[in-house]
């Protein structure tokens, strides 16, 4: 994990080759809806959104060494606020979107204040508990959240109602957000997070304010999860307690692990893999969750470093370690 | 011919071929199968109910050999996992990928509401024989979401409140799962009961999946009420009924239930502790109506169990759609005509043994049976009607417009008239 995380650090900005790769991937992604059906375009949209969520979790898990089980709640709060602001309060979609992100960041700040002084399993449990509180509020505060039934509303602006248009909009946001996250984890500040992951005590003795750095890292990660959550609310036009539930957090973490912890872009691979599995397998058997579980166990045994991590290892081996992985 | 010119010509040729082929394709589509997308929770908290929903639909389609109006019926089943997000995703798949002509099913209100919001945008007919959320046929009606063979949550507890008054009950306490389905059923009872001079002493709301009811039962025992109304589904219903008996309350304070509390899906696993509980519903498997008796017997012969609300409702719902399609020659592609026909269709073959029709808001009008759990000759328990309220509207005796001006039933609004 350490090696995988530190490798990209050796590339200062984006090299020419990396830019070319990014452009090709973006062009391919943008062309997808032209060959996919509406339903598949919808799934692709969902993959991008969950990819973003997984990446935001990876900022903490892969780079600061803190795995959060509360990100589903942050993600969902943004969704709740977006739907409430546009459907109940009648605000324009753009403003609702902004409020959603702000709310998610605010929740992340509260989580961060409470959780930054812990690490390991305590961090896991604390974020889990905080997430459950949010879930409980969404479930019981019926007058505002609609309780178990959730809230509905047409929140997409008219120009984004069509599947393709919405996909492209999400793709554009995803590209921007991914770039921002990538720059964030490579910035000098991002490096301090890596330092904290590797040795908290050393960072302390070097004079860094470790809790403050973790706090900022958490808030930024929550901000990105909030963007994903706002998009998800717009995608579904619906939000319910299941969106803020523990299962949502766990799914995000699973996607991140499946893609590869500390690989950042692995989030997309993990999201794509899990969403595809969910939808393909469930067409054949009602025991699709069993298949999903078994696949995950196999993945953890055969490729504990995740899909991207495994590809990296294979690449490094076949090219004798000469070729450096250039990111996505 | 240069390349550009070639492209132009060939595109035109392909387009022309496409146009010519189009009428043929349309003609073929008319005779292709009718595709029915069935959403049911096959995994998750209500999975057992979901399996019976599938049985109900298959039971009907088997009986007509998967043929409606001369067209073959293709049934596509998807698992909504008792989760609204999954339900949405699967609904999208059935409509956009599977090209289903209609959707039917879902059990939990939140899954149904999520799918209803989705079909509102694209016009796909969606039938909800199980989803009972009041507002889907009241304040937030969606034209293409139709409650064929279903019921709205408070529709049966309104007459039940009236019946309780007639028994001379003055004070009732309610205990219910804390979610909309519970709020609505308790609300219906509370409103009619208190407006008729009764008093709701206290209402207990507990979270879904409550393992231990003793804190509630202890308080209920001390309230000195004439009856207790329990709104429970699934495992909660089983546990409440068992613990009610082991607390020694059975036989002391009469236990009234929502129809789901004494549904076959609950009482088929119970013994004498469920005997004597009274509930209000449209369907009573122990009815002496010959049509109902035949349905129950055939279902039992095929699946080895007395039909529950889920099997019965989905069976009737599928039949309703089929009867409508027969009337219009199977032209399911003509959505507007299809929806109108379903709304106008009066279900003649219902296992209830009586023609059922929809009111102006798309909710069925039923004879509501007050039913009691009794032991059958073979030792199994079932619900037998003891009184009946004919032609009950979802608005009870209120004027629909006035009724819909009051807020929907919730934990904070139970329609209770202050004495």
Fold and architecture overview:
- The complex is a heterodimer of chains A (about 325) and B (about 425).
- Chain A is about 75% helix and about 0% strand.
- By secondary structure, chain A is mainly α.
- Chain A has one domain: ABC transporter involved in vitamin B12 uptake, BtuC, CATH 1.10.3470.
- In chain A, helix 3 runs parallel beside helix 8, helix 4 (about 70-90) crosses helix 11 (about 210-235) and helix 14 packs antiparallel against helix 15 (about 290-300).
- Chain A is globular and about 50 Å long.
- In chain A, about 50% of the residues are buried.
- Chain B folds into 2 domains: about 30-150 and about 290-355, Response regulator (Rossmann fold, 3-Layer(aba) Sandwich); about 155-285 and about 365-405, Rossmann fold (3-Layer(aba) Sandwich).
- Chain B is about 40% helix and about 20% strand.
- In chain B, strands 7, 8, 9, 10, 11, 12, 13 and 14 form an 8-stranded mixed sheet that branches.
- In chain B, strand 9, helix 8 (about 235-245) and strand 10 (about 255) form a beta-alpha-beta unit.
- The longest helix of chain B has 29 residues, at about 5-30.
- Classes of the chains: A mainly alpha (about 325), B alpha/beta (about 425).
- Chains A and B meet through helix 3 of A and helix 3 and helix 4 of B.
Quantity of strands of chain B, as a count: 14
Mean pLDDT of chain B: 89
Structural class of chain B: alpha/beta
Structural class, from secondary structure content of chain A?
Answer: mainly alpha
Low-confidence stretches of chain B: 14-29
Question: Which percent range describes the beta-strand content of chain A?
Answer: under 5%
List keywords for this structure.
heterodimer, A: 328 residues, mainly alpha, ABC transporter involved in vitamin B12 uptake, BtuC, 16 helices, 2 strands, 1% strand, globular, disordered N terminus, disordered C terminus, B: 419 residues, alpha/beta, Rossmann fold, 8-stranded mixed sheet, 6-stranded mixed sheet, 19% strand
């Amino acid at each position: 994990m350490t090696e995988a995380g530190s490798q990209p650090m050796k590339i200062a900005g984006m090299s020419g080759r990396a830019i070319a790769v990014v452009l090709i991937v973006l062009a391919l992604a943008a062309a997808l809806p032209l060959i996919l059906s509406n339903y598949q375009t919808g799934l692709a949209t969902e993959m991008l959104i969950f990819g973003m969520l997984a990446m935001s979790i990876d900022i903490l898990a892969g780079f600061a060494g803190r795995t959060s089980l509360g990100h589903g709640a942050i993600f969902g709060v943004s969704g709740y606020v977006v739907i409430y602001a546009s459907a109940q309060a009648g605000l324009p979609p753009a403003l609702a979107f902004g409020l959603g992100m702000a709310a998610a960041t605010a929740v992340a700040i509260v989580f961060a204040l409470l959780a930054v002084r812990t690490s390991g399993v305590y961090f896991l449990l604390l974020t889990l508990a905080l997430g459950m509180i949010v879930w409980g509020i969404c479930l019981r505060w019926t007058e505002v959240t609609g309780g178990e039934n959730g809230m509905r509303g047409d929140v997409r602006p008219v120009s984004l109602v069509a599947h393709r248009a919405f996909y492209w909009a999400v793709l554009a946001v995803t590209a921007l957000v991914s770039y921002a996250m990538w720059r964030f984890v490579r910035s000098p500040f991002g490096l301090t997070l890596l330092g904290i992951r590797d040795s908290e005590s050393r960072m302390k003795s070097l004079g860094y304010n470790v809790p403050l750095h973790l706090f900022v890292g958490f808030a930024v990660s929550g901000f990105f999860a909030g963007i994903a959550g706002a998009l998800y609310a717009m995608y579904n036009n619906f939000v319910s307690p299941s969106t803020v539930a523990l299962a949502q957090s766990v799914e995000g973490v699973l996607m991140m692990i499946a893609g590869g912890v500390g690989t950042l872009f692995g989030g997309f691979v993990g999201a794509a893999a899990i969403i595809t599995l969910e939808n393909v397998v469930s067409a054949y058997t009602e025991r699709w969750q069993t298949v999903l579980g078994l696949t995950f166990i196999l993945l953890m045994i055969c490729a504990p470093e995740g899909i991207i991590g495994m590809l990296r290892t294979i690449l490094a081996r076949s090219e004798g370690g000469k070729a450096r992985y250039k990111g996505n | 011919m240069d390349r550009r010119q070639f492209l132009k010509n060939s595109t035109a040729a392909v387009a022309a071929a496409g146009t010519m082929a189009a009428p043929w394709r349309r003609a073929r589509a008319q005779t292709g199968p009718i595709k029915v997308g069935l959403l049911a929770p096959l995994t998750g908290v209500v999975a057992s109910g979901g399996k019976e929903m599938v049985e109900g639909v298959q039971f009907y389609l088997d009986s007509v050999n998967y043929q409606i109006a001369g067209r073959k019926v293709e049934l596509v089943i998807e698992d909504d996992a008792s989760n609204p997000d999954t339900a949405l995703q699967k609904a999208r798949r059935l409509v956009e990928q599977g090209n289903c002509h209609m959707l039917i099913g879902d059990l939990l209100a939140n899954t149904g509401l999520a799918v209803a919001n989705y079909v509102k945008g694209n016009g796909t007919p969606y039938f909800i024989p199980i989803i009972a959320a009041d507002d889907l046929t009241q304040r937030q009606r969606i034209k293409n979401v139709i409650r064929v063979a279903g019921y709205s949550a408070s529709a049966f507890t309104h007459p039940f409140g009236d019946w309780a008054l007639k028994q001379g009950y003055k004070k009732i306490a309610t205990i219910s799962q804390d979610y909309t389905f519970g709020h609505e059923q308790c609300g219906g009872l509370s409103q009619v009961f208190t407006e008729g001079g009764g008093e709701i002493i206290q209402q207990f709301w507990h979270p879904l999946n409550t393992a231990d009811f003793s804190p509630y039962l202890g308080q209920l025992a001390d309230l000195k009420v004439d009856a207790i109304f329990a709104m429970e589904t699934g495992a909660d219903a089983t546990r409440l009924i068992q613990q009610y008996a082991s607390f020694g309350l059975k036989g002391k304070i009469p236990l009234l239930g929502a129809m789901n509390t004494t549904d076959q899906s609950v009482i088929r696993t119970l013994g004498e502790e469920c005997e004597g509980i009274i509930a209000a519903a449209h369907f009573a498997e122990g009815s002496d109506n010959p049509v109902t008796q035949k349905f129950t017997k055939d279902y039992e012969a095929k699946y080895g169990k007395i039909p529950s609300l889920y099997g019965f409702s989905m069976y009737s719902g599928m039949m309703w759609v089929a009867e409508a399609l027969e009337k219009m020659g199977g032209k399911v592609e003509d959505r507007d005509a299809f929806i109108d026909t379903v709304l106008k269709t009066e279900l003649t073959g219902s296992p209830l043994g009586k023609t059922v029709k929809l009111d102006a808001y798309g909710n069925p009008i039923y004879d509501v049976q007050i039913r009691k759990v009794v032991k059958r000759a073979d030792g199994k328990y079932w619900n037998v009607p003891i009184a009946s309220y004919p032609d009950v509207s979802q608005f009870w005796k209120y004027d629909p417009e006035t009724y819909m001006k009051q807020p929907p039933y919730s934990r904070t609004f139970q329609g209770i008239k202050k004495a």
